[in-house]
Write a structure and sequence with these properties.
The protein is of the alpha+beta class. Among the domains are: about 70 residues, Alpha-Beta Plaits (2-Layer Sandwich), CATH 3.30.70; about 60 residues, Calcium-transporting ATPase, cytoplasmic transduction domain A (Distorted Sandwich); about 120 residues, Calcium-transporting ATPase, cytoplasmic domain N (3-Layer(aba) Sandwich). The chain contains 25 helices and 26 strands. The strands form 5 sheets. It has a 7-stranded mixed β-sheet with strand order 14-26-25-24-15-22-23, with helices on both faces. It has a 6-stranded antiparallel β-sheet with strand order 6-5-7-13-8-11, with no helix packed on it. α9 runs antiparallel to α10. The longest helix is centred in the first third of the chain and has 35 residues. The radius of gyration is 32 Å and the shape is elongated. The protein starts with a strand and ends with a helix.
Length: about 700
């Protein structure tokens, strides 16, 4: 599936979204069309092999929209550039000057004809869009405004007709200027990324699109890292705020990963690339946010359904307001016609329709600047109603950097012990668990190289790992594995009590089905974990810890964190069961984990949150929300973002409906001129846009 993104400046109302889909979806090869009203972008997914010359040509999709006066252009990759708006601004300025001159009719009557100039400049664009909508049997804002303009001219009130044209055009221009901030919120970081990378061996600049995996590039102090890579030479501090939202420098040493869009603050670095430019962590983040902004929320769908019936119903009321008095031969026909035109303006649901998507778009973009990747507006709604958050222990509540405390064996010579360590390390080197990583490091410090003769490596779900090394079956796991294998762990009872006091994780080792020893490894809670949990609790959300570790290790961490509720010795399916129970008994449930080992629980929760995934494409895809850094305090920030989003949406919906009720009430009482009704309508659109933008 190929993807084409278009800038569509001609979207003056969210009500035009169905019209855009009606234009593009019938084109051969088009699979899906999504429209982001706030950022004025349209994304078209299409078959790259179907009628390549016509349908799949990017310019062809833009041409189809331009025939409907949508001012579409292909959005090219690379640095974002401002769209030329000089022509639109100039026309608006001229029409505004003409309208101001028309008000001088109070001193000299012929000045009123300047309003005709305002109408001639702005009305044709509105009329052409209205015709396109009527051809597709749609009653959108352009049709309603055209009726109001024609009605005002029919009443020979040219200044009022000109005011409608100018106010409608000015509001559209003002919204365009305002929502550019939503685009720039994410585009800023992408714009700064250099378009070339410097080869380490020759010092020559090469376009990023030509850089292959494994290429060595150099980055000088003060320069931005152009592409994801692993540090081969040099040391430095790096500003990762473009990804994580945290401006505090991060120390980088040989072997550490560095990400595109981050800034090398000191030192000369040689980096081996581990991704292409289009697949960098920053590029993935921006793509995820762009996709999230195009997703429609439940509230948005409800509002659109309401608007679908609201506009025709109000239009029928306006028609009846004109026809019934005429059929009854009542007096004041001009009054009833004027009132019906005001009702036509009130029938425009633009402010109501955009009240939710503009807020969701801004909230998602604002969260991304803080390193919080939210996959859609529905996640924002769930965050606002979150009742409980379950958090994995290892690597989430704790640092995930284990240290091996001790290793004990049963009646074994030093030579045999070295061979055993070599074989165990060989098995553990195939595992991604933090304890396994710690044990391999422990063995290497002893000067022992892990065995490479490892075969039939397996993960024992909820128990540990096993493999065949040098012809021997090596099994490493927790107490559950020891019980299943009937190993006599009591022989090590004198060590176990001490380990339990330290909250250590105990791993049992068996060779060919017989217990030969055990080792222990300890982790510690994150420095910010206790503060983060207190913040979450203070927001009214229940917190509990889920872990596959033993009871003593879980109890130790729980004590360090202020005595939070915990469930220990859990299999992955046990975590899913607990999540399902919480969903049924408590309400909206979030699960926080590393995005890989906790995938089933993340998928089962209402909200799956993966932490520290700046370089993990898998975690970004699995989670509903991805935190680009390992800082638990961001969970409370997420809660705040969700509640702020809900509050702003409710405010926008209230503003949209209340304004229309006030206008109708004043119009019935005879206090609302037509231009004031238009001003109230388009003004509310601008108001809800700016109100949503406070979340950026």
């Amino acid at each position: 599936i190929a993807r084409t993104r278009l800038n569509v400046l001609g979207i003056c109302c969210a009500g035009e979204i169905p019209a855009i889909k009606m234009i593009l979806e019938p084109l051969s090869g088009v699979e899906d069309v999504s429209v982001n009203y706030t950022t004025r972008t349209v994304t078209v997914l299409h078959n790259p092999f179907d009628r390549l010359v016509h349908t799949l040509n990017k310019l062809y999709t833009a041409k189809a929209l331009n025939e409907a006066r949508m001012e579409a252009s292909v959005l090219h990759e690379g640095p974002h550039k401002s769209n030329p708006e000089y022509k639109r601004s100039l026309w608006l300025l001229v029409s505004g000057v003409l309208l101001v001159l028309s008000f001088l009719y109070l001193f000299y009557l012929p000045f009123q004809w300047f309003a005709i100039g305002t109408i001639l400049l702005g009305a044709p664009g509105i009329a052409l869009k209205a015709v396109m909508s009527l051809k597709r049997l749609r009653l959108d804002v352009n049709v309603l405004m055209l009726i109001a303009i024609i009605g005002a001219m029919g009443l020979q009130n040219y200044i009022e007709a000109g005011s409608i044209v100018f106010l409608f055009s000015f509001a559209d221009w003002l919204q365009l200027r305002a929502v550019k901030k939503a685009n720039e919120a994410l585009a800023f970081a992408a714009d700064l990324v250099p378009q070339n990378a410097t080869l380490a061996d020759s010092g020559l600049p090469v376009p990023l699109k030509e850089i292959q995996l494994g290429t060595l590039i150099s980055v000088k102090a003060g320069e931005m890292v152009p592409i994801d890579g692993v540090l081969i030479s040099g040391e430095s501090s790096v500003n990762e705020s473009s990804l994580t939202g945290e401006s505090r420098p991060v120390a980088k040493h040989v072997g550490d990963n560095v990400w595109a869009g981050t800034v090398n603050l000191s030192g000369y670095l040689v980096i081996e690339t581990i991704s292409t430019a289009e697949d960098s962590a920053l590029s993935r983040m921006i793509k995820l946010v762009e996709e999230a902004q195009s997703k429609r929320t439940h509230t948005e769908l409800v509002v659109e359904t309401f608007a679908k019936y609201y506009t025709p119903a109000v239009f029928l009321v306006a028609t009846a307001t004109t026809l019934i008095p005429l059929l009854l031969y009542t007096s004041y026909e001009r009054h009833w016609l004027y009132l019906s035109l005001i009702i036509v303006v009130v029938a425009c649901p633009c402010a109501l329709v955009i009240s939710t998507p503009v807020t969701a778009t801004c909230a998602i973009a604002g969260a991304a600047k803080l390193g919080l990747i939210i996959k859609g507006g529905d996640c924002l709604e769930l965050l606002a109603s979150m009742k409980v958050v379950a958090i994995d222990k290892t690597g989430t509540l704790t640092e995930g950097h284990f240290r091996v405390l001790d290793f004990h064996v049963v009646n074994c010579t030093e030579t045999a012990k070295s061979e055993l360590l070599q074989r165990i390390a060989g098995v553990e080197s195939h595992s991604i668990h933090p304890v396994a990583t710690a044990f391999v490091g422990y063995v290497r410090l002893l000067g022992i190289k892990p065995s490479e003769n490892v075969a039939d490596f397996r993960i024992l779900e909820g128990e540990g790992v096993s493999a065949v090394v040098d012809g021997h079956l090596i099994e490493i796991g927790n107490t559950r594995l020891a019980f299943r294998r009937n190993w006599r762990t009591s022989m090590f009872s004198q060590h176990l009590e001490e380990y339990e006091k330290q909250g250590a994780t105990i791993c049992w080792v068996g060779v060919n089905g017989e217990l030969v020893g055990h080792f222990s490894a300890a982790d510690k809670a994150r420095s910010e974990a206790r503060e983060a949990i207190e913040n979450i609790k203070n927001s009214g959300v229940k917190v509990l810890m889920l872990t596959g570790d033993n009871q003593s290790a879980a109890a130790c961490v729980s004590h360090q964190l202020g005595g939070i509720e915990f469930h220990a010795e859990l299999l992955p399916r046990d975590k899913v069961t607990i999540i399902e129970q919480l969903k049924a008994s408590v309400g909206t449930t979030a699960m926080v984990g590393d995005g890989v080992n906790d995938a089933p629980a993340l998928a089962a929760a209402h909200i799956g949150i993966a932490m520290g995934v700046a370089g993990s494409a898998m975690a970004m895809e699995i989670a509903d929300i991805a935190l680009m850094m390992n800082d638990l305090r961001r969970l409370a920030v997420l809660r705040t973002v969700g509640k702020s989003y809900r509050n702003v949406v409710m405010q926008n919906i209230f503003f949209s409906l209340f304004t229309k009720l006030v206008v109708v009430g004043l119009a019935v009482a005879g206090y609302t001129p037509l231009w004031a009704a238009v001003l109230a309508d388009v003004g509310t659109c601008v108001l809800v846009t700016f109100n949503g933008m406070q979340l950026l």
